[in-house]
Specification:
single chain, 779 residues, mainly beta, Immunoglobulin-like, 8 domains, 6-stranded mixed β-sheet, 5-stranded antiparallel β-sheet, 4 helices, 37% strand, elongated, Mao_N_sf, Ig-like_fold, Big_6
C-alpha cells in the first residue's frame, strides 16, 4: 500500500528553493522497506531578486558621446537587501530594451526599459529608467543627476570694477576639460576701469568644482605734465596741456596783468598781452620760471618786480606789473625845406639829439646804413645834410624827433615844405550826396587821403584822385570809396604842379539847416560868478546845471559873445556839468557842455598825498598840470570817475577832467531797476580785484582785505567775514559774459549810491534822463 499522506513530514523549501518533491512520489506502493527523500528545486536568479524585493530604475547621467553603463540604471528596491541583490547583479548583464535603443549621441532626456539577464539566463525588466545626456557647459540642474565626472563651475565678479551682468547660473563641465569660452558671462569694466581679467584664466582645465572671478584694472588717466598752461582772456579756457593730455581738475587759475592800459604787456611762455591767464599746478613756485616776464611799451618804464612778488601759489591769485609813464622830450622846431636847400634845419634843446624818423618814430637809416642824427648846438640850432637821406627819400618824406637827456623821444614832426600846395576847399557832405566836392587850384590834383596824408585806395585798388577843372571846381564820387569808409571818415589834399601836397583836410558832414549852430562855452572854474561863451549873434542862450536847473538866460551879442551872471548860491562846483543851449529863430535848439574845473591857489606845489590802496588793486599814474607859477598851498588834481551808458558799448574814464573812451564787448543793461555791468568793469570801477571760476560759476571780488563771492545762479553775496547779503537782482549771462548788479557789489565795499536829483554827492550817481551810471572813485 501507499504511505498515508498525512504521515509524510511537512517539508518546506529552504530560502532560495521552491517546489518540494518526494522521491519516490508520495503515491508510491511500498513492497519493501522504502526511503522517501524530500528535496526542492533551486530558484532562478531572477526569482531570487524578485524574492528579495525586486529592482528599481536608477537615473543615469552621461556626457554627449560618452559610453553608457546601463548596469548603473538598476538597483535594489529595498535598502536592506541591496547587498544581496548587488551580489546577484554583479554577474548579470544589463542592456537597453527600449525601441529604438537609447544612445548618448544627442543631449536630452530619454525614458526607457532595461533588461537584466542573470548568469542563469533568467531575466528581469526594469521600466521607467531615465537617461540624461549633457554637453559640457550646460546649466547645472537643481533636481536631476549630472555625470559623475562633472565639476560645478560658478562665475562671480568684483563689484567695484565689473558692471552688473544680471543672473548667471552655475554650469557643469566635464572634469579634465576647460570651460567653453562662450559660457563665460559678458564681463564689462566699470567707468574708470579697463582690461577685464578672469581668475583663474579662462583656459584653465577644470578638475574639481571651480569659481571663476572677473575683475578689471583701475584706469589711470594720463594727465598733462605741463605745470603752467597760459591763455589769453579771448581764448577758450584750456582743458589740455601742450602734450594734448587733460589738465588735472585741481589746477588753479593765476592772472598776470600789465597796468595801466597801453603801458606794457606780460609774457607767460608763448602768450603775451596786457592780461594773460594761466592754469597752474598748485604748489608751483612761479619765481623759478624765466618764461614769466613783462615788457614796457615805448614811453613807459617797467617796474622792479611783480606785485606781489612771484612765489609759490596754492590758490587763485593775481600778479600785477604796474608801469610808470616816461617823460617825453619836447617837440623840436623844423624849418620848411625848399627843393634847392642842402640842409634840414630847426631849433631844439641844447645838447639834445635830433633823429630822422618815419611817421611812427622809427629811425631811418642813411646811405651808410646808420641812423641819421645830429646834436642841437649851444645856440639851440641843428641841421642835417639832405644828402645823408637814402636815395628813395626827399626831405618832405621824413620826420624828425628830439631826445633830451634822460627823457623819451618826442613825437615825430614832419619836415614841412617851402613849396607846399595850397589847402583845397572841401564842401560838407550830406548822407544822400553822391559826390565829395570842393574848390582848388586849376589843374592841380585832389587825392583822398588819411589823416597822415597817406593815399586811400578805392575799390579798384588804386588811389582815389581827380583834377581841379578850369573853373576851380572838383568832385569825387562817393561810390569810389572802399566799403569800410564813408565820406566823413576821409581827408583830401591838393598837389599843385611842381609843389608838395598840401596838409590833409577832413571831409565834414553837412549840418541840418533846421538845427541851430552849436554854441561854445569858455572854461568854467569852480566858484565863477560869470559864465561866458560864443554863439550866433541874436540867438537865445540858456545855461543850466547838470540837473537841468536854469542858471541864467541871455542873447548872443553882435560880436558873437555871450555871458550869464551866476546867481548867489548857484556857484559851480568842480566836476559839475554846465550846459549851454542855443536857439536861433525858427530853428531847433542845440547844446554844448563843459566840466567845471578846480580853482588853483597861487603858491608853491606841495608833494601830493595819494590815498593808499590795497596792493592788489590796479594803480594809475597821476599827472599834475599847474598853470603858470604857483605858490604855497596849491591843490593837486587827482580825480577819477567812470560813466557807463545803458545799452551802449562805450564808456568813459574821466581822469582829472580828461575823458577817455573805452569799449566793452557787452552793453550795460537794467534789470529790476538795477544797473548790470560786466564783471571786469565792475571790478575796475570799484577798485577791486576779480577772479572768475568757470567751473563753479563763481565771481570773487577782493578789496581792502574783504572778499565777496557771488555764485551767478544765486541771489546772495557771501562775505569773508561770514555775512551773507541778499541781492535784489541775480547776475546775468549775456553772450557768455557775466553781468552783476554794480550797486549791490559796490555797497559791500562801502560805496554809496543815489541819483543826480537827490542833491547829495554819492559814490554811484544815476542820471535817469541821460540813462547813465557814474561811479566816482576820487571826486
Amino acid at each position: 500500500t501507499a504511505v498515508p499522506a498525512e504521515k509524510f513530514p511537512n517539508a518546506e523549501a529552504q530560502d532560495g528553493y521552491k517546489t518540494v518533491t518526494w522521491t519516490p512520489a508520495k503515491e508510491t506502493v511500498v513492497n519493501e522497506d522504502q526511503e522517501f527523500k524530500a528535496s526542492a528545486t533551486k530558484n532562478t536568479k531572477a526569482e531570487e531578486v524578485t524574492a528579495l524585493g525586486g529592482l528599481k530604475p536608477v537615473d543615469i547621467a552621461v556626457w554627449k558621446g560618452d559610453a553608457i553603463t546601463w548596469a548603473n540604471g538598476v538597483a535594489a528596491k529595498e535598502e536592506a537587501k541591496k547587498d544581496q541583490i548587488a551580489a546577484l547583479l554583479a554577474a548579470a548583464t544589463v542592456t537597453d530594451k527600449t525601441d529604438p535603443a537609447r544612445t548618448s549621441d544627442a543631449k536630452g532626456e530619454f525614458e526607457g526599459t532595461l533588461l537584466v539577464t542573470f548568469e542563469d539566463q533568467s531575466t528581469l525588466e526594469v521600466e521607467n529608467q531615465m537617461l540624461y545626456v549633457y554637453e559640457s557647459g550646460d546649466t547645472k540642474p537643481t533636481d536631476k543627476p549630472v555625470p559623475s565626472d562633472a565639476a560645478t563651475v560658478t562665475f562671480t565678479r568684483d563689484e567695484a570694477s565689473i558692471k552688473d551682468w544680471g543672473q548667471v547660473s552655475p554650469i557643469i563641465v566635464k572634469k579634465g576639460t576647460a570651460v567653453p569660452a562662450e559660457k563665460f558671462p559678458n564681463a564689462e569694466a566699470q567707468d574708470g576701469y579697463k582690461t577685464v581679467t578672469w581668475t583663474p584664466a579662462k583656459e584653465t582645465v577644470v578638475n574639481e568644482d571651480q569659481e571663476f572671478k572677473a575683475s578689471a584694472t583701475k584706469q589711470t588717466i594720463e594727465e598733462t605734465e605741463d605745470v603752467i598752461i597760459p591763455y589769453l582772456p579771448t581764448d577758450p579756457i584750456p582743458t589740455k596741456g601742450s602734450d594734448d593730455k587733460p589738465i588735472p581738475s585741481d589746477y588753479i587759475t593765476v592772472t598776470f596783468k600789465a597796468l595801466p592800459e597801453g603801458a606794457g604787456k606780460v609774457n607767460v611762455k608763448d602768450k603775451s598781452g596786457e592780461t594773460v591767464l594761466a592754469r597752474v599746478k598748485p604748489g608751483t613756485n612761479l619765481a623759478d620760471y624765466t618764461t614769466i616776464s613783462y615788457s614796457a611799451n615805448p614811453g613807459w618804464t617797467a617796474p622792479a618786480s611783480w606785485d606781489p612778488a612771484l612765489k609759490v601759489v596754492i590758490s587763485n591769485e593775481t600778479f600785477t606789473a604796474t608801469f610808470t609813464k616816461n617823460e617825453k622830450s619836447t617837440v623840436p622846431t623844423v624849418n620848411p625845406v625848399g627843393k634847392d636847400d642842402e640842409n634840414i634845419t630847426g631849433e631844439g634843446t641844447k645838447g639834445s639829439t635830433i633823429t630822422v624818423v618815419d611817421d611812427k618814430g622809427q629811425p631811418i637809416e642813411g646811405k651808410d646804413g646808420q641812423p641819421i642824427t645830429t646834436t642841437v648846438d649851444d645856440g639851440g640850432k641843428w641841421e642835417i645834410p639832405v644828402d645823408k637821406l637814402p636815395d628813395d627819400k626827399k626831405p618832405t618824406d621824413v620826420y624828425v624827433n628830439q631826445t633830451e637827456d634822460g627823457k623819451d623821444p618826442s613825437d615825430p614832426v614832419k619836415v614841412p615844405s617851402k613849396e607846399q600846395s595850397a589847402v583845397p576847399t572841401v564842401n560838407p557832405v550830406g548822407k544822400d550826396d553822391e559826390n565829395i566836392t570842393g574848390e582848388g587850384t586849376k589843374g592841380s590834383t585832389i587825392t583822398v587821403v588819411d589823416d597822415k596824408g597817406q593815399p586811400i585806395e578805392g575799390k579798384d585798388g588804386q588811389p582815389i584822385a581827380t583834377t581841379v577843372d578850369d573853373g576851380g571846381k572838383w568832385e569825387i564820387p562817393v561810390d569810389k570809396l572802399p566799403d569800410d569808409k564813408k565820406p566823413t571818415d576821409v581827408y583830401v589834399n591838393q598837389t599843385e604842379d611842381g609843389k608838395d601836397p598840401s596838409d590833409p583836410v577832413k571831409v565834414e558832414a553837412k549840418v541840418d539847416d533846421n538845427n541851430s549852430a552849436t554854441p561854445a562855452i569858455n572854461d568854467v572854474i569852480e566858484g565863477d560868478k560869470v559864465i561866458t561863451g560864443k554863439g550866433e549873434p541874436g540867438a537865445d542862450i540858456v545855461v543850466t546845471d547838470d540837473n537841468g536847473n536854469i542858471i541864467g538866460e541871455t542873447k548872443v551879442n553882435d560880436d558873437g559873445t555871450w555871458s550869464v551872471i551866476v546867481p548867489d548860491g548857484k556857484e559851480p562846483k568842480a566836476g559839475d556839468v554846465i550846459r549851454a543851449t542855443q536857439t536861433e529863430e525858427g530853428k531847433t535848439p542845440t547844446s554844448a557842455t563843459t566840466v567845471v574845473k578846480e580853482r588853483y591857489t597861487p603858491g608853491e606845489v606841495d608833494e601830493p598825498i595819494i590815498r593808499g590802496r590795497d596792493h592788489k588793486t590796479p594803480t594809475y599814474p597821476v599827472y599834475t598840470v599847474v598853470p603858470g607859477k604857483t605858490g604855497q598851498g596849491s591843490t593837486v588834481i587827482d580825480k577819477l570817475w567812470y560813466i557807463f551808458h545803458i545799452d551802449e558799448y562805450d564808456y568813459q574814464e574821466v581822469r582829472n577832467y580828461k575823458s577817455t573812451d573805452h569799449k566793452m564787448d557787452v552793453t550795460p543793461v537794467i534789470r529790476n531797476d538795477r544797473t548790470m555791468l560786466p564783471l571786469r568793469y565792475v571790478a575796475e570801477a570799484i577798485g577791486a580785484d576779480v577772479n572768475w571760476d568757470a567751473k563753479t560759476r563763481t565771481a570773487t571780488f577782493t578789496k581792502d582785505g574783504l572778499t565777496a563771492v557771488i555764485q551767478i545762479d544765486s541771489d546772495e553775496i557771501v562775505l569773508s567775514n561770514g555775512k551773507t547779503i541778499k541781492m535784489d537782482a541775480k547776475p546775468l549771462n549775456i553772450n557768455d559774459r557775466i553781468l552783476v548788479p554794480v550797486t549791490n557789489v559796490a555797497n559791500v565795499f562801502g560805496l554809496t549810491n543815489g541819483n543826480t536829483l537827490d542833491g547829495v554827492d554819492q559814490d554811484i550817481e544815476w542820471d535817469g534822463e541821460a540813462r547813465t551810471a557814474t561811479i566816482y572813485i576820487r571826486r
